[in-house]
Amino acid sequence: MEFLDLAVQRYSVRRFDSRKVDSLLVNQILEAGRLAPTAKNLQPQRIYVIQSEAMLAKLAAITPMTFNAPQVMVICGDEQEAWVNPFNQHSSAEMDASIVAVHMMLQMQELGIGSTWVCWFDTAQVKQALNLPETVVPYCLLPFGYPAADCHPSHQHDQRKPLDQTVKYL
Prior knowledge:
- By secondary structure, the protein is α+β, with helices and mostly antiparallel strands.
- The protein has 6 helices and 4 strands.
- 34% of the residues lie in helices and 15% in strands.
- α2 packs across α4.
């Protein structure tokens, strides 16, 4: 599949059927994330694959934005292991974790698995629910699974600004 075709086909899936994604496919998705570039190749990403009913219920109590997905990845970064920009002291952890998440989302799409990016949650509550180490920060949730038969892109999916509104050549 051509990359632009993959990018065009991918949309935020918010309705899933109940089937769990097989562990071999989950590992393939995680491998795509492992191969993602990170600042200085420090790889500060920490990924938690939530699949037990108890943990899914904990996440659903924190945010309704898990969309009853059969599995959820919690994408985190370890601030202690991330590169820090010496000019502004900003950590690369969130940026690195985001790159990893996008790699995995695109791998999911290629495999026929839907996902959506969720950042509408209380970070402290997720951190507590997962008993994350002090230096590990959750940045996004990726609910994932097979799209429900009646799932379709939102009405806003195809609304993209033209390049001249987002790109400047200097």
